[in-house]
Amino acid sequence: MSCFNLKYLSLVTLCLCFNSNVIFAQEALDSFDLSINLDDVVITGQYAPTHYSNSLYKVKVIKTEQIESRAFTTLDQVLQFDSNVKIQYDPALGNSIKLRGVESNSVAILIDGVPIIGRLDGAIDLSQISMANIERIEIIEGTQSLLYGNNATGGVINLISKKSQLKKIETEVSALMESNGVQNLMLRTGLRHKQFLLSLHGNYLNDQNMVDDSLRIFETFEFEDGSSMEVKKYPWNPKTQWSSGASLRYDFLEDHRLIFSTRWNTEEVRNLGKLRRPQFLPYALDEVYNTQRNDFNLHYDGQLTDRKYLQIDLAYNQFYRSLTNERYEFDLGAIDPEMSEVDSSYFDAQFFKVMYSDQIKPNWQYMIGGQYNKETGEGERIESLVEGNEIDIEEASVFTQIKFAPSKNFTSSIGTRNIWNRTFGFISSPSLQAKWDFTPFSLKFGYSHGFRSPGLKELYLNFIDVNHDVVGNPNLEAEKSVDYNLSLEWGKKKEDLNLSASANVFHTAIDNKIILAQVNETRFTYQNLQRFISKGIGIQLSSTFKNFQLDYQTNLIFIDNDLTLNNEGVGSISNFDMSTTLQYRVPKLPINVSVAHRYFNSQVNYYLDAFNELGQSILAPYQFLDANIQTKLFKDNLSLVFGVKNLLDNFRIGVNNANVSLNHTDMSNDALQIVNKGRSFFISLNYNFGLID
């Protein structure tokens, strides 16, 4: 059966007659003929475009300027220096995150409000998500199930794509080269004519820091206690990505628009094996991972009256992944076709969402909406009682929220999402938010329930290769969470000085948290933790004085789970990190200098060993340091950035007292953990030009 055949395209084309996408009112504020600054408007967690100061949620925004000035090309690079985000690396599965201590399988990752599918090991590979055509990123930490439903018990990361331009014709090209073998090329162009805007973009990424022969070299790594282990000298697998996309926007009335968008992404990752039998007919066992994503979205939003707003979203997403096991014969310089095996899996998802809001009175507003999700999977590795190895999950929900502002200084909202899940029945997720402004302070409080059902891969997919042995568990229970958060924000502006500060405390408790657990010496499966708690405090400071800008963030998080809660004398797992960015704009010159630093303290983890006894491992502290210089020329249309990434060259960290069999991500050994790529120097060029009416 072909994974991407014409019957699916026909179905999508038919569905497009009815629908639309999730960014609702962001672009309702702009037009083709008028430039409106949207920098201070947020849409994630809102049901109408909202100035960030009026949002009931603490929304973190990463803007285009920040992405461009640091020459970021993929989502994992953007988030690497963001406080409360920790990037986790896997040579085969890619890069995933922890958000405020919560694993990525509980964090919703969206593009224009539509969930990205294709989770592996419960996570979306962030290195597959290109920043081409992305305008900004909005992040809300903590449970967000009211508006986003499943997979949002730990938070939401929403990528907002570019959907408007003032120039009649606009073209943007960019190129990046790194000393570690990374090459990235991007092209975007847009054409505006009357009520129409057509936008096209493409991106090419090639990542190979060593020739193939070097990537087959293994070396002995010695620890301080005298023990040693054999590891790949260069653990980064060669990667090639092609991505492209298109969108067509039609403003058929003054305050009504329709946007159809599509994205395609293909990736090949090669895991080159060790040279075997070097003296006689040498060979190597290689793995080739191929991934393909196809996304189709249709979005409508319209201002029905001055107070009534409607948004509709429809999406159809496809994800295909294959693993080819190859035997490379060195004497022939070719692959032995008789020794090659191909294993593949295919998933598709249907998504529909509608939201309607109405402001009854100046201080009363309500929203009501509905959402439908269905995901289907098939493939050789899917274990199912259904004939043909095809399975699916289905969910429908209705949600509503009422916002009340008894005074101009106090606003509150209460709402609930009522979910019907075909496997787990009916679930209700209430939410309460409040904000009190007492100049120059703002106090925000949130209380919300969340729900996450196990994904298809967690339930049924078996993932077995040289470095992984993971089997699905069809008996998993759904996660249920309760989240509390409180934040205090302060700001002051005076001439050349701009100061802001905030402090927040939070407590997230998740019952039946889904984790990957060891069941024997080599095999892992998904299991439920009875209780998981993430709690902590964070502080953010920002200061701008003349040509200087300083941003500082620090967090202290405590994690509790079944092991820490059920064993006396075992304390919470603590995680401390801080992030600092200093920028300086050279007076009278188009030059901006930036230095970014990220620090993680020593991290303790607990595990049960093969004898069911409690053990403790300690990950050594580590830090990253980036520095770059940006210059803008030709009326800021040309941007040139050059600098160094990971100046301290930290990429593989030792773990003391490790449970060697527990890590399935780095050559089946937890004694070393990959935390970043090595040091690299880069240069990036971005040129934007166009024709004004």
What do these coordinates show?
The chain has a 22-stranded antiparallel barrel. It has a five-stranded mixed sheet with strand order 3-9-10-7-8. It has a four-stranded antiparallel sheet with strand order 35-36-39-40, with no helix packed on it. Strand 11 (169-178) and strand 12 (182-193) form a beta hairpin. It is mostly beta strands. It contains six helices and 41 strands. Helix content is 5%, strand content 59%. The model is unreliable at 1-37 and 660-670 (pLDDT under 50). The chain is globular, with a radius of gyration of 25 Å. It starts with 5 loop residues before the first helix and ends with a strand.
Give a short summary of the structure.
The protein is mostly beta strands and 693 residues long. It is built from 6 helices and 41 strands.
Topology:
Blueprint: H1 6-15, E1 41-42, E2 50-51, E3 59-63, H2 64-69, H3 75-79, E4 85-90, E5 94-99, E6 102-103, E7 107-111, E8 114-115, E9 134-141, H4 145-148, E10 155-161, E11 169-178, E12 182-193, E13 196-207, E14 218-222, E15 228-232, E16 239-253, E17 256-271, E18 283-303, E19 308-329, E20 334-335, E21 341-361, E22 364-379, E23 390-407, E24 410-421, E25 425-438, E26 441-452, H5 456-460, E27 463-464, E28 469-471, E29 479-494, E30 497-518, E31 524-545, E32 548-560, H6 562-566, E33 573-585, E34 591-600, E35 603-608, E36 614-619, E37 622-633, E38 638-645, E39 652-656, E40 672-674, E41 680-691
Parallel strand pairs: 7-10, 28-31
Antiparallel strand pairs: 1-2, 3-9, 4-5, 5-6, 7-8, 9-10, 11-12, 11-41, 12-13, 13-16, 14-15, 16-17, 17-18, 18-19, 19-20, 19-21, 21-22, 22-23, 23-24, 24-25, 25-26, 26-29, 27-28, 29-30, 30-31, 31-32, 32-33, 33-34, 34-37, 35-36, 36-39, 37-38, 38-41, 39-40
